[in-house]
Design a protein that fits this description.
- The chain is mainly alpha-helical.
- It has 16 helices and no strands.
- Helix 1 packs antiparallel against helix 4.
- The longest helix is centred in the N-terminal third of the chain and has 39 residues.
- The radius of gyration is 20 Å and the shape is globular.
- The termini are far apart.
Length: 399
């Protein structure tokens, strides 16, 4: 028993560390790639295209990544993602910045999307390696690895950009490759137990049958819409702040607090789900996301940016962890690959659309208009939760 618990703790620690390293990469891209894109792009509306390309790369790779890991296991898949996508993408983006090539810079960010396509499954791997009673907390703890990234990501984007004098803004992308290399090292020690690996002989329901479940649809809705709202506003934030006259250090400060909002709640979100139920947490997520939009709509001062982005981060945390926990309850081990793959395909598709639209919406609507446009999406999440609760109440009344 002690050996099993020791292996469980080591695996969760490795996944949390790998999540931290990936989030440093992701936050660096979110903080800096829009600014670099604005400098390199042929027109302002394309400024956030490099960030969108990262999301496109994740969309294209997420379902194949899930099916690939179903065949070869989590460890091999994670090594491929960090090695090919992380190291390769970081180095290609650096070369593109050195050459002042916008399209090669987009290609480098696209390759980083491959890294994200695999890293999205760290949270599900936590379920695979944890005992049944610890699974929701294990998922939360892995995502809590982003707390350290809240400091290191903005720091990497704002301070290392002068480390290579001959290549302005090139240093952060070299550091991205280094972070991915460290992840490859640690993931070599990941050991997923047999219970967490696929069993080809198990009966598997058709995806259409699973998709008919209300909990499955709500899980996909909350994760996808909540993530899309967050990424769209987060992507536009550096552009909005720079347009308002704020310095890059102030942008990094706001992004740091945003990421803290995203991941600090992970230390207790799993416990809140266990105590109050996942539907209550998802309803709180909708309220927090709507509150973030309202605060951002009211002004463009530093306190407004700070509070709006903090609320946005906490709302994302509740929606993403809640949605992921709900999804994990809808499938068996043999159904894991296709269900998780389809979920993340939908999530990342909306995320890619959101990041692609961020620059255009900000350019045409401004900061207040962009945030006002997010309110209906938050209301949609609330309606989804209320609808599932209503359906469950009706079923309980039936004899």
């Amino acid at each position: 028993m002690d050996q099993v618990q020791s292996t469980e703790k080591r695996n969760i620690a490795i996944l949390a560390l790998s999540q931290t390293l990936f989030m440093i990469v992701s936050i660096t891209v979110m903080t800096l790639s829009g600014v670099v894109g604005y400098r390199l792009s042929p027109e302002p509306g394309l400024a956030t295209l490099p960030i969108a390309m990262m999301m496109v790369g994740a969309v294209v790779s997420t379902l194949p990544a899930s099916l690939f890991m179903k065949r070869v296991g989590r460890r091999v898949g994670f090594l491929v993602g960090a090695g090919v996508g992380g190291i390769g993408g970081g180095l290609l983006a650096f070369v593109a910045v050195a050459l002042d090539s916008f399209w090669w810079f987009c290609a480098g960010n696209l390759l980083l999307g491959l890294y994200q396509g695999f890293a999205m499954y760290y949270r599900f791997a936590a379920v695979d390696v944890a005992s049944p009673g610890f699974r929701s907390r294990a998922m939360s703890l892995v995502l809590a690895g982003g707390v350290a990234a809240a400091f290191l990501g903005p720091w990497n984007a704002s301070l290392t950009n002068t480390w290579i004098p001959a290549v302005r803004d090139g240093g952060p992308y070299v550091m991205i490759a280094v972070m991915a290399l460290l992840s490859v090292f640690f993931l070599h020690f990941l050991r997923v137990p047999a219970a967490g690996e696929p069993h080809p002989g198990e009966r598997s329901r058709r995806l259409s049958e699973i998709a008919g479940l209300g909990h499955f649809r709500l899980a996909v809705l909350t994760s996808a819409v909540g993530y899309a709202i967050m990424i769209l506003v987060m992507t536009a934030t550096p552009l909005a702040m720079r347009a308002s006259g704020f310095e890059m250090e102030q942008v990094a400060f706001i992004m740091q607090w945003h990421v803290l909002g995203m991941f600090v709640p992970s230390f207790f979100t799993g416990s809140l789900i266990a105590r109050f139920g996942v539907l209550s947490i998802l309803l709180c997520a909708a309220v927090l996301l709507a509150a973030a939009s309202l605060v951002a709509f009211l002004g463009e001062s530093l306190p407004h940016f700070w509070l709006a982005l903090l609320l946005l981060g906490v709302g994302w945390n509740f929606s993403f962890i809640g949605g992921s926990a709900l999804l994990a309850s809808t499938h068996s081990e043999s159904e894991r690959g296709k269900v998780q793959g389809v979920n993340d395909l939908v999530v990342l598709s909306l995320v890619a659309i959101g990041s692609l639209m961020a620059g255009t919406l900000f350019h045409h609507l401004g900061w207040s208009g962009l945030n006002a446009a997010m309110l209906p999406a938050s209301v949609l999440i609330a309606f989804g939760v209320v609808g599932v609760r209503f359906t469950e109440a009706l079923r309980q009344r039936q004899p």
